[in-house]
Amino acid sequence: PRRRDPADAGGGMNVKLGDLDLHLAGEGRHERIYEQLGAHVTSGGVSFAVWAPNARAVAVVGDWNGWDATVDPLEPQGSSGIWHALVPEAREGSRYKFEVVGADGILRLKADPFAAAAEVPPQSASVVFTSTHEWGDADWLEARRSGDPLRRPMSIYEVHAGSWRLGLGWRELAEQLVAYCEELEFTHVELLPVMHHPFSGSWGYQVTGFYATESTLGSPDEFRAFIDAMHQAGIGVILDWVPAHFPRDEFALAQFDGTALYEHADPRRGAHPDWGTLVFNLGRNEVRNFLLANALYWVREFHADGLRVDAVASMLYLDYSRKPGEWVPNAFGGREDLEAVSFLKELNEVLHEREPGVVSIAEESTAWPGVSRPTYLGGLGFGLKWNMGWMHDTLEYFTKDSIHRRFHHHELTFSLVYAWNENFVLPLSHDEVVHGKRSLLGRMPGDRWQQLANLRALYGYMWAHPGKQLLFMGCELAQEREWSEPAKSLDWHLLADPDHAGIQTLVRDLNGAYKAEPALWEIDFSHEGFRWLEPNAAGENVLAFGRTDGDGGWLVCVCNLSPVVREEWRLGLPVAGRWREVLNTDSRFYGGSDVGNGWGLETEAVAHHEQEQSTLLTLPPLATIWLAPDA
């Protein structure tokens, strides 16, 4: 191959990066840095730019130059730490890497941190890619900008795209998964990380290509078309996003220029003890910029409706999973990671200001105060937070045999003590059906009928509880084995069994009834949208509560979590008149025994449960019923 003089760079950085770009990048405030760094096709070839401030030399090697580092060297751009070259021979689809001679003198072949596409593993080169997708979701985006996701229904189907149905890519999922979510009436789908990752066993949580989509499922534009199809079907798309850490793969971010560039140099801060990964140095402007721009990239370039930030607790605490002596206190001697706190606040401020209607969600497992409180009130600024306490207590209760539940009633009622401290999502996620925990069905007590009934009752209780809902794929089928191997598909054959098909039908009807009842989502995050009716019937394993939209609309949820039918059980109701059964998890359509109140209910002027009127109803066994006033 011919050897090119760097001076032939076709105008140097005028191709892409100007003085303002360099200034903003150094300040950590370049929100579209991905339009400058990385590989971009221009009229004169492909512009390659990479940040490697401590490198002795950088070259781009690829399939056009025989992977020869002497052909296309990059030139440093002032003191910015950015290296650049314009390569006339490179083109759309070219495979490439950066050959970096580090500060330590060691030569490393590195994938492009800003690459828009990557080779299919185990190959690890970056790929020049330019999007040509024409979006058709303008109406969706307009509605998103003018709406408040916290005051809208949100029922999330959590999906690992590679194992929902084996062998499908984004093109097939744009038809089959979209149709499935429509049929089951989910409002949103949340995808385990789709950013490029070479190790499928990480489920996507060990990302090497933060700006590239997972190449095994198709091209970035096929993923864009998938999101487009979801939006045109009225379904939002939330992406899992992992700014907490990155893997040590030699071709990726670790020791990028022969120094700890993206990570902390001190292993007491830079090495993650649980996952064997490296922790981003959020005290460095350029690293913050890399991640902040990345969050905006998925929202702007892929039209994502939300980002669920993984492992927030591991970011907030310097001593997370570390023993004494294995961590470094902050400047004030505390355990809080002040740089991470500052980063998360900035992330949420930028997202909410630049992209109104987009929701940020924290997976945060501690009692850190104000995770979903606005930053101007001292919070971290997330829109929503996963309610890990509700998940833990609820599953603890439901795994108990009904005869012992009277001693654990508080595990169901305690969540309402703190339900409005944060804006909560109720997560029955992938984390609850892996690593020997068994499937949700497998954790339910009793014989086969009771296991299924318990699961149905749990879902009925969950959908009525304050907060948004999240259910991992397979849980709507009552999957019998846990999900631990992405190389296996869901057990779709279970739907031939009426019991499993009944659970799926229940989830569909729960979503439909939930969306149709503003009382269940209009005031999710204030005690004004909730009223206890019977929190104290521990001896009967019964609880009852009401939800209201603040405009006179009510829905009452009653759970009987014992296998005993309770006849003529008196229930105080907030509104006089005729009430109807909106949903009954014991219906024969779901595989239940069909005990209920299908004929409707009339209140009488008998005060009960601190309400002026009440009615007598039948409580089906191991079941949840929803009641609403007759229109």
Give a description of the structure:
It is a single chain. This protein has 14 helices and 29 strands. With 631 residues, it is an alpha/beta fold. Among the domains are: 6-127, Sandwich (Immunoglobulin-like); 530-629, Sandwich (Immunoglobulin-like), CATH 2.60.40. The protein is elongated.
Question: Can you describe this structure in just a few lines?
Answer:
The chain has 631 residues and is α/β, with parallel strands linked by helices.
Residue share in β-strands: 15-25%
Secondary-structure content class:
alpha/beta
CATH C-level label of the domain at 6-127 = Mainly Beta
Query: Per the principal axes of the C-alpha atoms, what is the gross shape?
Result: elongated
Give Rg in angstroms: 27 Å
Query: How many β-strand runs?
Result: 29
CATH topology of the domain at 6-127: Immunoglobulin-like
Please, how many helices? 14
Note the gap between the termini: 79 Å
- Mean pLDDT score, rounded? 95
Largest sheet: 8 strands, parallel, barrel
Strand order of the largest sheet: 10-11-14-17-18-19-20-21
Uncertain stretches: 7-15
